[in-house]
Design a protein that fits this description.
mainly alpha, 1 helix, 83% helix, rod-shaped, 24 residues
Length: 24
């Protein structure tokens, strides 16, 4: 299972990808 730190990092990565797609 994922630790809370891993979940937070995963969410941060998803947000970064979403922002990058919006800027694209």
């Amino acid at each position: 299972y994922l630790f809370k730190k891993d979940i937070n990092r995963y969410r941060a990565i998803i947000k970064a990808l979403e922002l990058r797609d919006i800027i694209k």
